[in-house]
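Let us practice reading a record.
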Amino acid sequence: MFGHWHEHLNGNKDFDNCYIISDSTISINKLTSGATFQLEKTNPSQIWEFIKYSDKIVQSHLITDDKVTFMNNTEWIRQPVNSETFLNDFSAGYKVNIHPFKSAIEKSESIAFNNGRLNILLACGKLKNQHIDTKNGFLKNQFYFQINDKITREYEDLLEYINCTHCQLDKINLYVNMDKNTPIELKRKLDSALNFLNLKQSQVFYLKADLKKSTNEYQNTTANNGYSK
């Protein structure tokens, strides 16, 4: 099962999660909200200890060179190692598709979750096909913020999410994974929320992609006001 896999549920075109497995590690949604875990080389079945948290995965499966088919309408499709796969991985684990801002990156660093600060993750992009629900107002080709599992375009939801009630605002870091084509309307809503809460530029980071190096980094907004092409 070594390789780079995208998880598709019930035949959906858009994938849900990303798994990258080697003989010593498994990465789950590595470029977005996930992490990399060490594996024991002598115990390949340990892979299941890291993915069984999801009720979508069952251990009974059929594996071929390019696909793993699970007995609950879940499929893993093997991905080529190229720039298209790299960019697609910025949507892993989210209900929205995200095409990231691009930037030259000198050194890639992961989020330091144990830095004594409250690290808040926010995503913004177009809905994946499986989450389009026109009856309830979730439209195709519309951009939305994702707050935990909630999809929204509302300024008040941003305020409530970012304004942690049990933490001082100056102890917060906000990490934004935003589609480069996000309309100015939503950018202004986010900027207004940050200004209202008086979050400093040094507390806000935007996820950027370096295509030449196939690496990513959350860059602080003090350097370039966050947005870039």
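A brief commentary: The chain is about 15% helix and 30% strand.
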